[in-house]
Amino acid sequence: MPPTLEARAPAPATTRGAGHRLASLTVRGKDRPGIVAAVGSVLGEHGANIVSLDQYSDDPLGGAFFQRTVFGLDHLTAVLPAIEDGLRRRLAADFELEFALRDLSVPQRVAIFASKSDHCLLDLLWRHRRGQLPVTVAMVISNHPDTAEEVRSFGIPFFHVPSCGPDKSAAEAEHLRLLRGNVDFVVLARYMQILSADLIEQLGVPIINIHHSFLPAFVGAGPYARAKERGVKLVGATAHYVTADLDEGPIIEQDVVRISHADSAADLRRRGADVERAVLTRAVQWHSEDRVLRHGNHTIVFA
Amino acid sequence: MPPTLEARAPAPATTRGAGHRLASLTVRGKDRPGIVAAVGSVLGEHGANIVSLDQYSDDPLGGAFFQRTVFGLDHLTAVLPAIEDGLRRRLAADFELEFALRDLSVPQRVAIFASKSDHCLLDLLWRHRRGQLPVTVAMVISNHPDTAEEVRSFGIPFFHVPSCGPDKSAAEAEHLRLLRGNVDFVVLARYMQILSADLIEQLGVPIINIHHSFLPAFVGAGPYARAKERGVKLVGATAHYVTADLDEGPIIEQDVVRISHADSAADLRRRGADVERAVLTRAVQWHSEDRVLRHGNHTIVFA
Amino acid sequence: MPPTLEARAPAPATTRGAGHRLASLTVRGKDRPGIVAAVGSVLGEHGANIVSLDQYSDDPLGGAFFQRTVFGLDHLTAVLPAIEDGLRRRLAADFELEFALRDLSVPQRVAIFASKSDHCLLDLLWRHRRGQLPVTVAMVISNHPDTAEEVRSFGIPFFHVPSCGPDKSAAEAEHLRLLRGNVDFVVLARYMQILSADLIEQLGVPIINIHHSFLPAFVGAGPYARAKERGVKLVGATAHYVTADLDEGPIIEQDVVRISHADSAADLRRRGADVERAVLTRAVQWHSEDRVLRHGNHTIVFA
Amino acid sequence: MPPTLEARAPAPATTRGAGHRLASLTVRGKDRPGIVAAVGSVLGEHGANIVSLDQYSDDPLGGAFFQRTVFGLDHLTAVLPAIEDGLRRRLAADFELEFALRDLSVPQRVAIFASKSDHCLLDLLWRHRRGQLPVTVAMVISNHPDTAEEVRSFGIPFFHVPSCGPDKSAAEAEHLRLLRGNVDFVVLARYMQILSADLIEQLGVPIINIHHSFLPAFVGAGPYARAKERGVKLVGATAHYVTADLDEGPIIEQDVVRISHADSAADLRRRGADVERAVLTRAVQWHSEDRVLRHGNHTIVFA
Predict the structure, then answer these.
(1) Within an 8 Å CB–CB cutoff, is residue D71 touching chain A?
(2) Among D48, D49, D53, whose Cβ lies nearest the Cβ of A61?
(3) ipTM score of the complex?
(4) Less CB within 10 Å around the terminal CB: N or C of chain A?
(5) What's the CA dihedral at D135, D137, D138, D141 to 10 degrees?
(6) What total of structural domains would you count in chain A?
(7) How far, in whole angstroms, is CA B64 from its chain's centroid?
(8) Is it the case that residue C219 has pLDDT exceeding 70?
(9) Distance from CA of A163 to the nearest CA of C (A)
(10) Which of A103, A130, A160 is the last residue of a domain?
(11) Would you call A36 and D57 a contact, using CB atoms and an 8 Å cutoff?
């Protein structure tokens, strides 16, 4: 009797560090000797096992220091406050560093904004359902009702908030009402409306956006038609944090795909959509695992 | 008033050759001088506009000849039989070539087989719904009931055909009953059962499969765990036509993704799944557009 | 006795179409039914074996038509004038098409311009020496003497033509004296001086340039430092034909490489150099095989 | 007066950590809480600035621990012995860890082995000459005299050591005489002879090899011809450490390049050569910067 393919399938693997609970610690500030030892000793005092540690200094002589540490610990919830206290005394006091400590078993809560295009939205929802994105999708907000049924089939609340005219104040008030206190970050999954600087500020949580990218860039209307006309050989996408300066916030991730003269402008848009969903998914994944640290107008990504 | 992003979106582009109907012509056989002229003159006599033409000869001195032509024509349905007749007289008689002529506005009918994993299945269904795959998905057949509801939400028939023991005869009889006469090709979208040589022969239509690929290859059980242990830096996927020789049929498409030591065996499987769906989608797309010509144990892909 | 690795090495393979001489035919003009048949019948009348044929029409209903055909023929040199004559009568007269016919066994002559950086220059010279670039490198011209000895070690003439001030007329007069009648195209392999519109026109041969590319683009001074500051995740390169509009001519090829926050501006420049040489080499290869057809401000690349 | 391109070129950037001397510290052993703090405190006691720190643990509960730290220090040479002493006391005694400390301003010495193919050899020598590879190329050893002149034009000693018959003892004795005490690692840059297990052991330094890779693998003679016949869509290369088990040592780096049906076996070999040199260069770069840690039959690469 021949073995079936299923019989040959690998057994489910356990992820790293399973067995006890994990937390992430991100640290940033002015680089000075001794930071690594200080962090290490605080964690060590509480019996934490460091699973991974990434560090980057943009200039070891007084530049900016960035560190991401993942550590495991029995009774994590009980001990975390004591670790936080220890870090505050050592890092904040001695080194004037900022730090963030997070229990990785508590997923971050995210709201996804979408419009009519569903390629980025569905890829996020599929991965979330498969347990591949360590987030809770709190809600989907769209200025179009089209994807309502699909979103709700994933068991996720869908809110239709129309927003089409120049005056977005009513829509944005509704956004704030829905989001405030309910989400840790927001993802614009091809949401085709601009968020006002005021909304961005009032929300007070990171916002991740995705947009197409070309070499050279085509600013303004009809970028795909112009890319086609110009005969570019690559189309790409950029995921970035949203700032008041549209499409100019810190870049999280980029990628491109090869095209040819035989691709129509519609083909370019379709290929571009494939890159967009891949790039946005990676950006959301990394952000939700605390792998992305913002610094000025760029990012440190411990991917 | 600032323009919205939506206002800046490109206008819908028309695909190449829209405006009149398109047909594809694939030709193969022993290479000899004059084939191109013969094909061109038959098409020209009927006023066909050649949209694209790809040709390959593995040895111009008597090797094998392959050609794919897409042409447009008013009143295509009416004229196609006359073209077919002309080609038969010229190509089959003078050059002993085989050819296939197909009205591209009539989508090929496909059945998708799946098991529990939904990453390949959903990507195909979703692209189909967006109008990106020029096929009719006639049905989904699975040996597990898990994806029934999701599949049916796309408006596509789902059939649960259990198949777990060594004796697959009952399942395969059911497969034949469902498929015969109803589909032009079959896609195994991570279907984890082996099709018998008998079923493959009786079906008599092309069958496309997807499987993971590594450098070096890991034959047998637990390939991801072994790839992890061996420290490979790439994981990949291969889409191929199914023959009686398991996983060894003509390759249609391959791709890889970069991994690192920090990826667990579960991460490898997840990254591998991303490549699988991308590779299978490309293979299905190309097959459904008559871009893939089989020859011996390899393929000519006019992508 | 164990086999050596050398014993396991593959036997030299013959390239396609070896055995008799090959010629390329490129055709362009307004698309109309019957072109393919006309080309095929002229070639067929002279007993030519078509090795490969690529065709593209940007709109089959009266758009622009592009075709590249490679064919083999015994006694090619003797028969070529008759083929040219036949094509002129059929294509130029009946269809108002332009065409170019070239004996592929006669390599195109190229002059390479360089400055101090040698990464693009050396890659081209080395591939040429290995017989991978079907060109004759007629000369290398540089505004710096640094690479003279290295270039000459490849058996290739090196000319030092200083060009540093605002007045380039003396240098360009020397360029014209060296190049006119001696080369079929020119490659700027990181030549860091701008060619005047006047020189470009007087040369009258295609000129290929390579430059770095970013998403987003950084126009002006210090692009690598600014790309670093902006935190881009990809650096790339673009090879294009030179027109009077600096860095804006038709794109031949592009590629990118992934970078991270840990790469310094110097690292970016080094990674960028790797992409530059790869992209320029591909562009030169394709151009020298008549695979690149210019059309307006873009290219059709039958790669 | 228009600015020249040269005027627009970026100013030379300084690499990270320039200004004072850098050292690398790699640590490995059984993972236990407190290692990071211990390393950090020893470095901190001597005023070292940690420039970068990468860490990986394959299982935080008693798995294997790997760390690479780069740190800067004034008077590095003078202080290094004291640091080494401190680490020995803390790491070796308290944690039973192994560590290696190296002054990064002292380049590692490498011998490159080659045969007739020069693509990998020249790429290494070019990059070395440009200051991109932090090594001293002590010598090139080849079993063919062909590349002697070229190698010596780089100012590097070339030794011709014939090795063709089954009995390699004379050649290997000569290898040992040339290498022993003179090199820190060896690179086989398409050296087409097998090193005996005896030579590998007596050399006692890491040996890096490059070989082609396919999916699926083609073991034995004529891999490119067989890959062509099988219609693979990717060809690749693998760089690995040499062990007595031929082509099976720990993988350092891999990559692939896309090919098509139109590529001949010779094209495949040429494309394969491009990947080989890129992959080998990365492997040598990473090894020479102490970024590669071997563990069992795989590697941890802090790239």
Answers:
(1) yes
(2) D49
(3) 0.87
(4) N
(5) 140
(6) 2
(7) 22
(8) no
(9) 29
(10) A103
(11) no
